[in-house]
Write a structure and sequence with these properties.
By secondary structure, the chain is of the alpha/beta class. It is about 55% helix and about 10% strand. Helix 5 runs antiparallel to helix 7 and helix 15 runs antiparallel to helix 17. The protein is globular.
Length: about 500
Amino acid sequence: MNVNHYIGFDVHKKSVSYCVKTAGGKIVDEGKVRATHDELRRWAGERPEPWRGAMEATLFSGWIYDALRPFAAELQMGHPALMKAIAASKKKNDQMDARKIADMVRCDLLPACYVAPVEIRELRRTLRYRNLVVAQATRMKNKVSGLLMEVGAEYNKERLHGKQYFTQLLETVAEVPDSVKDLLRLSRGAMELFETTQQQLLARLKRDELLSKRVTLLESIRGVGEVTALTWALEVGDPHRFSSVAHAVSYCGLTSALVSSADKQQRGPLSKQRNAHLQTVLVEAAKLAPRWNPQLAALHERELARGNRNRATLAVARKLVAYLLAVDKSGQPFEVRSAPAAAAEVQAVAQKELRAHRRENNHASLCAAQRRFASDPPAAPRLTGDCTRGTCLLMCQRDCFEAGRLIQTQSSWTASRRSRKWMSGHADADALTQSATDRKQRVVVQLGGYAMALQETHPSAGRILFSLDKPLSWMSPVGSGWLNRGSAGSNSGRLIL
């Protein structure tokens, strides 16, 4: 679809400011629309041209995004902190903000953020509400303990929040005002209500078909419960949006802020730019997971030996992120690899990387040989005498490659280059310079052997000369193209029989 208009939206609770620009930056239209579903749909349906738009991510951007998305060729949501860094200016109002967002879309400078599907956002809203209910229930428990401490009542801390013990305590406690007893009953009722509500919300989430399989796979990790699995699945959304474990760890708020300039680096506390809901759950899970997971327990003990308990908890939380991301991406249950299997996998990866490295080096060597031949072609050894044109001399690829590698890897070849010694195809190894190594001798003898075989097959071919400096690089295996260089009517650069 050919997009002609680029629209920036500055969204607010009661109104949405917009600015429409062309690809050249000319303002076509701008104004305000009431922030209601009907008004936004009516305005979007009246747009005469296909358009791309963007808005800043805020509390009420979600429903505006859902209302406008069906009418746009592309609609994005920008990261607030990054947009502020890009478009910071002295003058700021709704109209200017909409223009700047339109320019970001038009110039492809918008720092877009991930927008989860509607179904995931609805389930995530339920989970976050459940977390709020749990926090309120905890506050009520603390309030009950505080009221009893204010009046000096004795109670069993471990059994205080049990229903039977709490009823007996209110009947038998002495010197407690009736007003405090009423407050205790109200707090107890609210706590039970919150507890029932959170259980119902949790059961509703677990029954969802979109999450059930995914949560089951995540719970295969020892130390990961249903709340941690649900929080990861709903807060992360699509796990493939994280290119690495480090990216996911940063999103979860488990890395410190980095300030780097020139050769200096400074690490601060944990960054506040994170998913706070996911960070809280992961840190709480990291405190309990080592009790059930031997691998996490070993990691916790190793970090704890360094003397900092909080850093040990963070290390376990980061490892949990690595486990969760691996299971979520692969779609396979978590399995602990044995030491031999892990070592074999590491060795296989190392061998694969080594083969790739060798291929790259060989490719680079071949390209260098081709460039050398193109920029400085040597005097090609020609066959003298009366011979048949059109039959090419095929040399051994392995020997030619060894010869080409010698000139690159052995520094002693410089001495041979200075000597400028030439040898004929009938010469043997004794004709070589005394400083040449055995390996060079074998190569030259083999090349001489091919020349001798050629002489026996074609006696009229005459004498073939091999140079110790040029032909070895010239005969590197750069493909069969070196056999056919030169024009059709010339023998320059060709071996012709």
